Amino acid sequence: xxxxxxxxxxxxxxxxxxxxxxxxxxxxxxxxxxxxxxxxxxxxxxxxxxxxxxxxxxxxxxxxxxxxxxxxxxxxxxxxxxxxxxxxxxxxxxxxxxxxxxxxxxxxxxxxxxxxxx
Amino acid sequence: xxxxxxxxxxxxxxxxxxxxxxxxxxxxxxxxxxxxxxxxxxxxxxxxxxxxxxxxxxxxxxxxxxxxxxxxxxxxxxxxxxxxxxxxxxxxxxxxxxxxxxxxxxxxxxxxxxxxxxxxxxxxxxxxxxxxxxxxxxxxxxxxxxxxxxxxxxxxxxxxxxxxxxxxxxxxxxxxxxxxxxxxxxxxxxxxxxxxxxxxxxxxxxxxxxxxxxxxxxxxxxxxxxxxxxxxxxxxxxxxxxxxxxxxxxxxxxxxxxxxxxxxxxxxxxxxxxxxxxxxxxxxxxxxxxxxxxxxxxxxxxxxxxxxxxxxxxxxxxxxxxxxxxxxxxxxxxxxxxxxxxxxxxxxxxxxxxxxxxxxxxxxxxxxxxxxxxxxxxxxxxxxxxxxxxxxxxxxxxxxxxxxxxxxxxxxxxxxxxxxxxxxxxxxxxxxxxxxxxxxxxxxxxxxxxxxxxxxxxxxxxxxxxxxxxxxxxxxxxxxxxxxxxxxxxxxxxxxxxxxxxxxxxxxxxxxxxxxxxxxxxxxxxxxxxxxxxxxxxxxxxxxxxxxxxxxxxxxxxxxxxxxxxxxxxxxxxxxxxxxxxxxxxxxxxxxxxxxxxxxxxxxxxxxxxxxxxxxxxxxxxxxxxxxxxxxxxxxxxxxxxxxxxxxxxxxxxxxxxxxxxxxxxxxxxxxxxxx
Lengths: 118, 676
Fold this sequence. Notes:
With 118 residues, chain A is an alpha/beta fold. In chain A, 44% of the residues lie in helices and 22% in strands.
């Protein structure tokens, strides 16, 4: 069983994700969190195998969250899901994650990316 | 000096002395003393100076009368008359050397005594006067600041001037030449100054002329070796004599050359200033208090197409400069009455070929060194191009603002799109699950085989558990509603964006300001939602007002984005944790609505809030600035909508923008009539 955490400040996004992930969860234990600060606490506690996070969030952005998480667990797999398509963000993202998906993305693409991590 | 003459008698024979005293007193003289020796005589003189001394040659004591006279002469100038019965030649020769005033042969006769004494006194006074006068003139002569030479003329056999012989020179001349009196007196000028012979024309001719016309001739003479400059004044005081006064003008010449240098410097400075003025790429017009144009710069000429020759010296009021005279007159009069520089913006002008443009002008009083106003200077710049650029910049700025929001708007659309996509996947999945269940039900409903029926029912039960139909039944409506909500959100954003399109339309139309603000809130949500709550208090009965909605929305965008940035700054500085933007609308009077947008951001200091409506003023980092937008906001509200915009700000507390807009129903009806 692998642990996966999804972080997005948009509640609707998380609930819809939770629903669509319904058939994926046999091998996975999913966690969902809207607040990046609370998300990090959860990451510290659960030590997930995969972190999927939004970029722009109040309190802490996705890149900062991934940087902190990587210090905690260098081998953690990460996906940055972002509406920001600016080069500046992309360049920064490249330093913390190999997987950068721009919103909106098709759920199948996300699923494929998650499954390709292992 | 008393009129009674005092006489000292030096006589060793008491009888003679007494006789003399008696005789003199009978003649009206005062005898100061009768002494018998030289030393007594000197002692008596020192206490009471006589006007005349009667001196016997053979007297008592160490010195005889002549020796005594010699001593007295050294100390005083008192006329002395010798008396002697001895007339030997030797004594007379000795006596002569003491320049006596008389010589009486004893026995002295009364009339001789009187005439000798009187003539001695008279001669002594004349001598005194002459020597006094000579002393004065000598002093004058010696202390003259000019050198002085006096010549006798010597003639040759043909009665032509042969040479000049120096008879007198003053101290100054000796000082000047470094010669001694002995070197020069009685010397011929030609031998003393041989160079004079090389002068052309011959100096003798010149002297001849001077003698003939009796006037003073002046010659300027420079000595290159010593770099000295002189003026020689030459005149003929009497026949056969020539006087020369030499005035050393080297210093004044130096002064003169300094003056020339100064004048050159002044001219140069003037030229430099003129060059500087001319190189300034601005219109510079100098006008004096009589309104006469005194300066007309090259640029002024180019701008108005009037040459300086055509305009300098003319009254500015009569000049044919084509510009907004009303404003210029007002500016000049304010500049002169208030005695300070006066700026005039946006002065329209045209040149001689009819091209027009806009000038920025300042009128400055010109003061002299006593700080009195002596005219004014019109300093102008052709800002036509700048104005055009500014207008373009305003246009660009508007587009930049929308452009800046674009990624935020995209993000706002992305999020619902994302969850609609997720939900749709879920619904598709759920539908597949339901299909399986329905197929299973279908199988049951169509089977006739009761043995199989029980097996099918078991399958259905397993499926219902497996597919978690309970979960699906509760989640499907949620997913559908969420998707519908998402789609609504997208369509809201898209429709909000519509009111920002066609910004080029300048037409006034009925506008629901509440809706305009709502649209702006939607468009800008991504800018503020991470840091702030946005609370609206809309007056639901707000009348529609006449406005250009795209322009108005632009104002709201700029204010909301500024508010959001001010909040971000306050959060970064840990002044607040979370921002709050309040937007309130109200009908203030029947013809005026009020919109108040308040934030609890970083606020502004007074000096900044006073300037935020200035074009090109921004408090934000270069490149980020929508501070620019506030100048547009000002012109949009005040110029386009005839409204007012005010800012109230407290540093580190927040900012409020208060906008008042007239309803102006009349104008709309007019517009409508035009439309239909």
